[in-house]
Write a structure and sequence with these properties.
CATH topology of the largest domain in chain B: MetI-like fold
Shape of chain C: globular
Structural class of chain B: mainly alpha
CATH class of the largest domain in chain B: Mainly Alpha
Order of helices and strands of chain B: HHHHHHHHHHHH
CATH superfamily of chain C: MetI-like
Shape of chain B: globular
Chains: A alpha+beta (337), B mainly alpha (277), C mainly alpha (314)
CATH topology of chain C: MetI-like fold
Radius of gyration of chain B: 23 Å
Helix content of chain B: over 70%
Strand order of the largest sheet of chain C: 1-2
CATH superfamily of the largest domain in chain B: MetI-like
CATH architecture of chain C: Orthogonal Bundle
Helix content of chain C: 55-70%
Number of strands of chain B: 0
Number of helices of chain B: 12
Strand content of chain C: under 5%
Number of domains of chain C: 1
Oligomer: heterotrimer
CATH architecture of the largest domain in chain B: Orthogonal Bundle
Order of helices and strands of chain C: HEEHHHHHHHHHH
């Protein structure tokens, strides 16, 4: 069991502030995902937890113990790297056992731990293979196995799925979710730029932008009440429609936000907006219509099932009033009372 | 193939043949000569005419040539092992640990590898005398460090920079100290680089002349290049060319074999030291 | 002082780095820095080979000093007033400049040749490494034999081809001694140049050539407009490397053309004074001058090469 606290945490590289006074608490046993565009500081934040990077100012606590100067191996953490970072000259068994050997665990203990982890990840058959003899997915499992064996209090993932192909990515995502389920006592921190991964895996998501936290919350909170225009745009796919100008003015806001799934195609008399379809995307399960309604950008509408709408058709739209989002000039939400 | 292509191919193969003949001919001619004795030596032949091992017998049997070869092997071997031993840890620090003055240090090391050996000759002579190792192999082992050590440090540093950082970080998280990282994680990955640098340093030490000439006086302590340079006959006109060529062939054949076996490694080592900078 | 368990990761690593570097630095200090400083010190004394610790400080006398004779004539002494030294400087510079220029041109040509596709390319590549691998002394002896005035194959070949009408003492003759040294050096080091250039050539992406071919650019133009600019950085580094090597040349000259005024280089004359003529301090002054010249070239190299010393660009 371990909770992690950041207090005014900052990190500077060559006079560039990449983490700007971050305060955050990651609860014990929670699956926390850091998400944001590249360069937002999410990986740096993870590396600060791991101890691979030095904290410039502020404090970090793991289980109420200040760990600013504690070396990585003494922090009770394990880390899964983007490139797997397996030791190329060691077989699967030795890769997993290396940390315990260095910690001077007994032979039996090591064997027990490695075999358990191998079983859990279906690596039993592969124990004497070298990394180069494994597929990408197997390598990823070995990397996870190596992390499990150390019995960490905190499990760190640095974009672990980005080197896998799409099918394997979904499968491994599932395995990580299962891992979290099986290891309830272990706090997990996961970095990704992919909001789908974030939404599917996280207990809570921390959205980062330019070294600052934009919002922390459960996936549902982030989806339903984004704390800024940035979060609103980042979470959800296809992206939320942002409408400015006259239409927004009708709602007394600077920017009106409407998710594609919250706009319906309706009969002309019920319509608030009308326009022509300029592009369609048929995903099989859904249809995305791009409708020109006189705003700066075409509005994207997500419709279920087959629709067979031709380009150039005039359609009538109505947003679901309760699901609209309103933002002011500072990109902050306006709470409607 | 059309005509211009055939002409082009022929020209290409002709040019290649010329380059190869020029590169190989002196060695080939040395071999031919080494099999000639007596007055045969004074006839110019482009192709082998005799096969007489007398020169080899006289070189290997007489004087101290075998002893000289032994000296060269011992000196080169110890020099290379010592240089690699010192260079591995140093190049890890230079490649992977950030500290102030690292750039300056690397620049200095590169500078030392380009030192004119003569500039330190007087000071080294004094040092060698002071340590009492004049006219012993240790004088060469000590002095050869001046070019083998910077070279190995430079090439190994270049190589270590190329090793993936995440592997090292994984080892750090696993609790490995820098020493463990070097010995247990990097060393096994570095064998190709160690072989290459070791080989190049070995060839460098094997071929060295200035220090070996200056720090030895007796025939028994000479290295091979010095021995060959100082083989002489009764007078200017009696240079024993047959014996010199036989000795030359003896010390060159192992090198030529190494070149053929390790061609790729040698080229990669040369370019790592020279190009990547 | 903090206990090691309280040191942060970076502090621990910095500390290990220090211990990892220390043995190498001590060693380099002993074999390079200290002897260099001692050599420079000797150059300001009148130390002799037989009495290394008995030297007196004489200031710049080994470099340059003058004495006014009673007749009013000024007599200059010291290395800088020594015609033999300036002859050696001129020989060295001439040798370095000519050999490196020719090696660079031949190196590029051989590299282009080896970059072409033909059967047995790797064997050819190994074959041209042979001159590089042969010890300098051995190649000097091999060539000395080939260039022999009486029985040398070169004289025989040239007579047969009608290039000369009488046998030439290539290495002994004042006019041809330098040519002999140049030929052997070029033979021996062009492979090094060629291989470096080849490495540079192989880094040039193939589609550039294909694009040029599609555009119908003449091959010679392709070479000067595309290939040469792309391998220029590599070539520059190789040239400066070779230049530094050529400036300190010793063994080839010493063995191929012993005691020839026409080829005696700075290294040869320095060693001669240091060891053979027992003008230890005078030789030290000459070697220190050579060091100064090479130091300037090294500075130039680092500046020209704009080396990525911290490895931070990638």
């Amino acid at each position: 069991m371990a909770n992690i606290q950041f207090k005014k945490l900052s990190k500077t590289y060559d006079n560039v502030k990449v983490i700007k006074s971050v305060d955050l608490e990651i609860r014990s046993g929670e699956f926390m995902v850091f998400v944001g565009p590249s360069g937002c500081g999410k990986s740096t934040l993870l590396r600060l937890i791991s101890g691979l990077e030095e904290i410039t100012s502020g404090d970090m606590y793991i289980d109420e113990q200040r760990v600013n100067n504690v070396i990585p191996s003494k922090r009770g953490i394990s880390m899964v790297f983007q490139s797997y970072a397996l030791y190329p000259h060691m077989n699967v068994y030795d890769n997993m056992a290396f940390g315990l050997k260095l910690a001077k665990s007994s032979k039996e203990e090591i064997e027990q731990a490695v075999l358990n982890a191998a079983k859990m990840l279906q690596l039993d058959e592969l124990l004497d293979r070298l990394p180069k003899q494994l597929s990408g997915g197997q390598r990823q499992r070995v990397a996870i196995g190596r992390a499990i064996v150390r019995k960490p209090k905190v499990f760190l993932f640095d974009e672990p799925l980005s080197n896998l192909d799409a099918a394997l990515r979904v499968q491994t995502r599932l395995e990580i979710a299962k891992l979290h389920h099986d290891m309830k006592n272990v706090t997990m921190v996961y970095v990704t730029h992919d909001q789908v991964e974030a939404m599917t895996l996280a207990d809570r998501i921390c959205v980062l932008r330019d070294g600052r936290i934009e919002q922390v919350g459960t996936p549902a909170e982030l989806y339903e009440s984004p704390a800024s225009l940035f979060v609103a745009g980042f979470i959800g796919s296809p992206q939320m429609n942002f409408i400015n100008g006259d239409i927004a003015a009708q709602y007394q806001c600077h920017t009106l936000g409407a998710r594609p799934e919250h706009i319906e195609v309706v009969a002309e008399e019920d319509a608030l907006w009308s326009g022509t379809v300029i592009h369609t995307e048929d995903l099989g399960s859904d249809n995305h219509l791009f409708v020109e309604i006189g705003a700066k950008q075409p509005v994207v509408v997500r419709c279920n099932g087959k629709l067979n709408t031709d380009i150039g058709t005039r359609v009538h739209l109505a947003p679901m009033a309760s699901q609209l989002h309103f933002f002011d000039e500072n990109e902050l939400p306006i709470r409607q009372s | 193939m059309d005509l211009p292509t055939i002409v082009k191919r022929t020209a290409l193969y002709f040019a290649v043949a010329v380059v190869v003949v020029i590169a190989v001919f002196p060695f080939y001619y040395a071999i031919i000569t080494s099999f000639k004795t007596g007055t045969q030596l004074f006839e110019v032949n482009y192709f082998p005419t005799s096969f007489n091992l007398e020169n080899y017998q006289s070189v290997l049997g007489g004087r101290h040539f075998i002893r000289n070869i032994g000296n060269s092997i011992f000196i080169s071997f110890v020099t290379v092992v010592a240089a690699l031993f010192l260079a591995i840890t140093a190049s890890y620090a230079l490649a992977r640990v950030k500290f102030k003055g690292r750039g300056l240090l690397l620049m200095t090391i590169l500078g030392i590898s380009m030192f004119p050996q003569i500039a330190v000759l007087a000071g080294l002579f004094e040092l060698v005398r002071f340590l009492g190792i004049y006219n012993t192999p240790w004088a060469m082992i000590l002095s050869y460090t001046i070019f083998t050590l910077p070279f190995t440090v430079w090439v190994l540093t270049t190589f270590m920079r190329g090793l993936p950082i995440e592997i090292e970080e994984a080892a750090i998280v696993d609790g490995a100290t820098p020493w463990i990282i070097i010995t247990k994680v990097f060393m096994p990955l570095m064998w190709p680089a160690l072989v290459t640098t070791g080989l190049l340093a070995f060839i460098g030490a094997w071929n060295e002349f200035l220090f070996a000439l200056t720090f030895t006086v007796s025939e028994t302590t000479r290295t091979v290049p010095v021995a060959i340079a100082l083989i002489s006959g009764m007078s200017q006109h009696e240079t024993p060319w047959g014996a010199i060529m036989a000795a030359s062939v003896i010390v060159t054949v192992p090198l030529v074999l190494l070149v053929f076996v390790f061609q790729r490694k040698i080229v990669s080592g040369l370019t790592a030291g020279g190009v990547k900078g | 002082m903090l206990a090691s368990s309280e040191l942060s990761l970076q502090q621990q690593r910095a500390r290990s780095a220090f211990w990892f570097l220390a043995p190498m630095l001590i060693m380099l200090f002993c074999v390079a820095a200290w002897p260099l400083l001692r050599s420079i010190y000797f150059s300001f004394t009148d130390t002799s080979l037989t009495d290394l610790y008995g030297g007196q400080w004489v200031g710049f006398d080994n470099y340059l000093s003058y004495r006014e004779l009673s007749s009013g004539r000024i007599l200059w002494r010291g290395t800088l007033a020594d015609p033999a030294w300036w002859n050696a400087v001129w020989n060295t510079v001439r040798f370095a400049f000519v050999s490196v220029s020719i090696e660079a041109i031949l190196g590029v040509l051989v590299a282009l040749l080896l970059n072409a596709e033909f059967k047995g390319r790797s064997i050819v590549r190994a074959a041209i490494l042979i001159p590089w691998a042969i010890p300098t002394i051995v190649s000097a002896k091999m060539w000395a034999w080939m260039l022999n005035d009486q029985f040398g194959i070169i004289n025989d070949l040239f007579l047969t081809l009608g290039l000369i009408d009488h046998k030439v003492a290539w290495t002994a003759n004042i006019d041809t001694a330098m040519i002999s040294v140049l030929v052997v050096d070029i033979w021996k080091t062009t492979p090094f140049m060629a291989l470096l250039c080849l490495a540079g050539l192989q880094m040039v992406p193939k589609d550039i050539y294909e694009a040029a071919k599609v555009d119908g650019v003449h091959p010679i133009k392709v070479f000067f407009k595309i290939t040469l600019p792309l391998i220029r950085p590599t070539l520059m580094v190789a040239i400066i490397f070779r230049m530094l090597d050529a400036l300190r040349i010793f063994d080839l000259v010493y063995v191929l053309t012993p005691n020839s005024k026409a080829t005696k280089t700075m290294s040869v004359i320095s060693r001669e004074n240091l060891i053979e003529f027992d003008k230890f301090a005078y030789g030290s002054a000459q070697s220190s001058l050579l060091f100064a010249i090479i130091a300037i070239f090294v500075a130039l190299y680092i500046w020209l090469g704009k080396l990525d010393l911290n490895g931070e660009k990638n």
